[in-house]
Amino acid sequence: MAKLLMSLASLVLFSAVAVGTVTEDQLKAIIVVINEPGTINVEISIGSDDGVKVDDLFDVYRNNERLGRLKIEKVSADRAVAKITKLNDSKILRRGDNVQRKSR
Fold first, then answer.
1. In the CATH hierarchy, which top-level class contains the domain 22-101?
2. Sign of torsion over alpha carbons 59, 23, 104, 41
């Protein structure tokens, strides 16, 4: 059990070092849930533990192309639900698309 805990601690430490320091404006995540095509809400992979707040704005990207914008409506510790407020050129958001907090 102690070896497992040490391995997990090493993995967490390695992950933190590999990612580096992320400022609040650089907060990034991915879309983890889209209920169905054409839905207006999505769930993202970060929450209040990461500094996400209701009304925060996030831009959505795929392959470095900006697809649209999200506005956070509900936040839990490790997830947030956002409303799609803008889609560029009739784009469709997908699970796994990248999101980044819009610069303030």
1. mainly beta
2. positive
